[in-house]
Structure formats: structure tokens, C-alpha cells
Amino acid sequence: MLSNRHWPTDEQGSLLNIGERAKLQPAFQPLIDDTVKACLQAIEGDLHSLYLIGSMARGEAQVAYSDFDFIAVLDYSVDPELVKQDWMAPTMQRLSERYASLVKEVEFDLWPQGYLFRDPDEFSPGAFIVATQSICVWGSDLVPELPRYSLRHLPTLHAIANEDLLYFTDDLQEIADRLSESPTPDEVRVLSRTLAKKIARAGFALALAQNRQYTRDIAQCAADFSVVYPDYADDVKRVLHLYTHPTDQISSLQNILEGFAAQIEDVAAEWLDTYNPDWEEFFSIGEEDKPL
Questions:
Q1: What is the DSSP string of 181-234?
Q2: Among 115, 118, 250, 271, which residue has the least CB neighbours within 10 Å?
Q3: Domain assignment of residue 168, given as a range
Q4: Which of 113, 145, 177 represents a domain boundary (last residue)?
Q5: Model confidence pLDDT, tens digit, residues 105-138
């Protein structure tokens, strides 16, 4: 039976930051150190703080399968248009190659503080990520200054769901394109897990307003989806199997893309047309609604 992998909340129902240094797997520390060093060498004078985010910050990264996601937040006084960026692509490439046996890909980005501290009525995807799943590895941690995200607030639930639904079609197309490029068996297995993850998280997003619990765990996402959409339960089990037992058969993934994934894509599009008709990245959350 699946153990509960929902994230903890405080007494007001607000999500807590589950990024913790104690959760960092030692195997990833050299990559973290190299990335911090590269950022400081390139633009230390423009930086406010550096953050490890995503599965590695949550202590859920899987060697050879997980991405390395890293964020550099610029100092408030810095004009982001003037910050040097030509070092980023070659640095990511160098680190991806050096640590190819450890992570699937090294990715980092530069965020101005204005991306995090937006209008209070507007949901910032970046602020949500840093506030709920990050570790500050250099500089002054901004998490205490960021908004809180209550699972008792329906517009916030819709904004969180929007993040997994807005780019779902693009994600599926990218997987389809990569499958058409004659990938190696190992690459197909990686795509198998990626496809399963995208479907499970889209399903979780569709069910979030009913479940009112948050997770990034793939098995828990699948379980939450099945609770609200029981007619899809068997398909969800097959998709979850693709994650835990990735296939190297291109045809199997193409069948999923053309079948179940396409069905979820249609449901996701209907959701967006209802709750985010302009398909905006920055979702308006307005004033808080009444708690449950």
C-alpha cells in the first residue's frame, strides 16, 4: 500500500518548505560545489543568493535519472538585462558532461527578484518553487520573505495546478519529437520515465482542487489522480509502471502518447479554458477565500 507522500502544512494549511540540507545525498555535493563556484566566478557581484530546487532539494533525486535544477537570484539593484549570461550555456554543458553518470542534465537560470516578489494578487511560479522546495546554498535566504501558499485557498490551488497543465501539450510534443529521432534504448527508457511523470503530474493537477493536498511524488500523484478520476485508474497503473519499469520500446510510448496522454491533454485544455482562458503563466489569485 502506498504510504502518504503529501507535503506538510502549518496550522493555517500553508505548505512548508521541505527543502533541507540534511536531505542532500552526499553523492551530489561535488556537483553542487562546482555549480556554486561557477556562478560566483562569473557574476558574484550581481548575485543575491543561490538555490538548489526540485527533487534534489527534497531528497528525492535518483542517480542518473534526475535533473539538477539550480537558481541564481540576482541582487535587487541589478538590471537583469545587463547581467552577463554568455557563460551559462557552456557551463551547463560542461557540468552535464562531467556529471553525466550522476544526473540526467544540469540546468540553472538567473531570476531577478522581481520575478519572485510580484503583485500580491499574482501567483509567481518561481516564488512558489523557492518557498516550498529549495535550499539556499549561498547568500541570504529569501524564503522567509516570500508568500505563503495555503491549500485552503481555492485560487491558489488553481494557480498551483496551472503550472503542471499549462505546458503539458508542449511537453508531450517534445517527447514525441525525441522519439522520432531514433533514440538509443537508454534514451527511450529516460523518455519513458519522463512521459509517465508528466502524465501523473498533470493528472494530479486536475484533481488538486478536490484533494487539496500537495505532492511531487509520482506514485502519490497517480494515486490522487485515480481518486478523483476512477475511470482512468487502469490507465494510470500502466503509466506508473512505465515510470518504475521504464521501457525501451518506442512503439509503447507512441501508443501512450496517441491514446491516454492525448485524452489527458484534452481534459487539461478544458481545465485551462475554464480557469485560465488566456493561458497565462502568472495566474491571478485575488483575495483569499474561506478556509475549509
A1: T---HHHHHHHHHHHHHHHHHHHHHHHHHHH------HHHHHHHHHHH-GGGHH
A2: 118
A3: 154-275
A4: 145
A5: 999 999 999 999 988 889 999 999 999 999 999 9
